[in-house]
């Protein structure tokens, strides 16, 4: 079911930027606002740093990463 949203107290410069962006994309300000919300909320979730580290392949030996001292 669709929901109507009302955004109050929008700065004039933000409202103008929305209108300009909408015009550049050939949409109404309301349609542009909806597109901005979709882009912000439906993008893929970011992976945590721990998940990224855990997904790295186990390559090399510990000695490969030791700092050489002269």
UniProtKB/TrEMBL annotation:
Molecular function GO terms recorded: DNA binding
Keywords: DNA-binding
Pfam families linked: FitA-like_RHH (PF22513)
Residue ranges annotated for the Antitoxin FitA-like ribbon-helix-helix domain, each copy included: 4-41
Classification via InterPro entries: FitA-like_RHH (IPR053853)
Keyword DNA-binding tagged: yes
The protein, known as: DNA-binding protein
Organism of this sequence: Duganella violaceipulchra
Source taxonomy: Bacteria, Pseudomonadati, Pseudomonadota, Betaproteobacteria, Burkholderiales
